[in-house]
Model the fold of this input.
Amino acid sequence: MEAKDERVIVPKIAVGFGGRQRRSSLGSFWRSLRRNPVGLIGFIIVTIVVLLALFGTLIVPHDPTENNLRARFKEPGYTDTNGSYWLGTDQLGRDIYSRMIVGSTVSVLVGVVSVAIAGTIGVLVGLVAGFFGGWIDNVLMRLADGFLSIPFIILVVAISGVLSPGLGTLMLILGLTGWVTYARVIRAEVLKAREMEYVVAAYAIGQRRVWVMLNHILPNVVSTAIVLAASQVGVTILAESSLSFLGLGVKSPTVTWGLMLADGRQYINSAWWMTTFPGIAITITVLGVVFLGDWLRDVLDPRMRGR
Done:
């Protein structure tokens, strides 16, 4: 009976300890965030943008694609029988405020999906190249050099010419052109990790190479990939805005901040709000992502914790 009681009690203790450990980890992250004002600001900005992207369509006061030619070029604060236009209207009488909220959805979607595509490809390439080395490493790194040798705009124009323009095409382009950074960084981390004692010990007990790569080395480079992905989201949002501004990205009637900038550039002297508010939104969002990425680097990178 005593042995049976011990078997019943021990799992309960283990489960309780695991729960406390998870709560302790979350509490540690939150305390670290509160002690870092810049990271906290970034977290708040990113949270607001994500919430607007997910639920913004429920709170927009006007249809972002509806034309109202009687309300063209109205300044911020204009009010008529249809309601208030807090940030003014554009050349077709569309509400700038509503379009900015809906445009946040595209920015977040492009940033997350493109980074996920680029990160997945880059991590796999860097992991394989760094772990196996030899001719595999040479082939994969020469492929990366080939991508780096092609100017970004030329590569985008070439892919856009083959594929029909649209949101999916833009995310695919940014994903396929952004994997090189991940591959090089992860490869360098894997080259260091494969010489560590725990890898040597795994070989000593007879584990296979693929098992060692996936179960011992990959988990130890995930934090680096997360930090890199966080920093690249802002870059991707800027790239989307730039390509849409140049007419190489998302096409109307899809609403994006880059398209709003493109629509307002010829009216910048007479309707300054058409470009000012989307530009501010892009700047604040990118800064928020950068601030949050810096905090994640401090938390996840062991080399930064002691500083």
About this structure: The mean pLDDT is 84. Residues 209-246 form the longest helix (38 residues). DSSP finds twelve helices and two strands in the chain. The chain has one domain: 36-305.
